Amino acid sequence: FRLVVSSSWLYYRMEEYGVFLLGLIRLMCSMLLPGLLISGVMILFLVLFLCGVHLWIKQKKQQQQFITGNAGVIHPIVAFFHPYCNAGGGGERVLWCALRALQSRYRDATYVIYTGDQGVTGEQIIDGAYRRFHIKLPRPVKFVFLKKRYLVEASLYPHFTLLGQSIGSIFLGWEALAKCIPDIYIDSMGYAFTLPLFKYLGGCHVGCYVHYPTISMDMLSVVRDRRERFNNVSVISKNPVLSKVKLLYYYMFAYLYGLVGSCSDVIMVNSTWTENHILGLWKSRDRTSVVYPPCDVKTFLDIPLDGGKSRAQQTIVSVGQFRPEKDHPLQIRAFRKLLDSKDAKQRSALKLLLIGGCRNQDDESRVFCLKDLCEKLGVKENVEFKINIPFEELKQYLAEAVIGLHTMWNEHFGIGVVECMAAGTVILAHNSGGPKLDIVIPYEGGQTGFLADDEDSFAAAMDSILSLSPEKRLEIRQNARLSVSRFSDQEFEDHFLMTVESLITPK
Question: Going by fewer Cβ within 10 Å, which terminus of the chain is more open, N or C?
Fold first, then answer.
């Protein structure tokens, strides 16, 4: 009897579920047609909107009057997207050297810079570039001043920063495109999400110079392995759920980054390390070339390579902005280990000199924390900080230093490393990124420097360098100075022009 009742109940329940599923299927079918209709209408409106924008841009482009001479020759417009062009970093040196090279080769073109700098004139920006880099442009350049640069500021996006800045760059790019429509567009700051905007809506030939990939395979591995870094805080790295969510976000962003980057007709990267990551994400091997950034090596060549810097005071110098990725705490802790291996007299002869720039209050706070770390480790008397010092003073410190120290993990290139080598210090850099793959490599079979990757290896390497004979140190310094000629302004300009030729004069 119980078996009959149970069977009847089960049959009844299955019939209920069947009726429910049937009703659900009928509901979905009834919604399918309206859903398809609405989707079709939305797609149609989107297509019409984009077509209208494209036609508007085409008409606006025809109205642009960049004409000179009685012959009425229309100048092709070459535009650089560089919202921070009035800054004084390595990226800006690339911009001005690239402009100088193009203006010398292609004299009939009109050159434009999209910048978000406010409160300055174009003349002041040009003068600033000359004061900082001693670069004088042979021809005039037009500036298009953008008002929405705040949309690419990291401070605007405390969470999902990469996505926020990338979407913000699209709106900033639209402002640029609406003000001036170029024939050739070059992104020289790494805003890859602007590339499809200029290529498909603006009808431009597009190129880019990548200093550092917005997201890299290393960033994915750090989150996947739940390692704590400056861009993967402990709150996330210690939580498996948050780590998985962040990893999913990174994978989705990497996919989008690959899509927009692959739109570029010409891709230039600043190092082998950057090239490897861009090839992995953008899948555009045939359009990608390594073009080393220009380094002002000539400025340091007047520093004499004396017999081996055998002085009573042995200085280890670090040059770099006080940013978290530079890992100054690693330098201080490794220096403490070096001091621990010395007697009192040897310790008094050793000094660590941290030279760098402070851009804002956050950088100043980091310097305060570094000084506090020196106090706690008991190395305060052996460590000095030099902040925002003049260039001539920097040269003097480099001339007196024995070791040039650089501890950033996966530095994309390493202009500071090149400058230390040109100045005649024995370089000790992190065993990763550009220093490992491109800079601190043998020159004609001879050693050019040292590499390390943690406190112990950095301390051991510093000890080894200080223990070398003056003759051996001099040999390494001479090899290093000869090797960095590969990174001169002239080498950059030659390779840059060769790479962009297909962009400027397409077949």
Answer: C
pLDDT, tens digit (0-9, with 9 covering 90-100), for 372-413: 999 999 999 999 999 888 888 888 999 999 999 999 988 889
Supply the pTM of this predicted model. 0.81
d(CA 157, CA 164): 6
- 341: tokens are 């291996």
Helix (H, G, I), strand (E, B) or coil at 314: strand
Are residues 108 and 143 in contact, defined by beta-carbon separation less than 8 angstroms? no
Whether the CB-CB separation of 184 and 205 falls below 8 Å is answered with yes
Structure tokens at 382: 């052996």
**H/E segment holding residue 450:** strand 450-452
Which two structure tokens, joined as six digits, stand for 244? Answer: 């998985």
Q: Please write the tens of the pLDDT for every residue from 315-335.
A: 999 988 888 888 999 999 999
For CA atoms 332, 334, 340, 344, give the dihedral sign.
Answer: negative
Specify the residue for token string 């994915």: 220
* Strands of 142-145's sheet in order across: 142-145, 110-115, 77-81, 184-187, 205-210, 266-269, 288-290
Q: Distance between CA atoms of 375 and 356, rounded to whole angstroms?
A: 20
How far apart CA 427 and CA 449 sit, in angstroms, is 5
Beta strands 426-430 and 403-406, pairing class: parallel
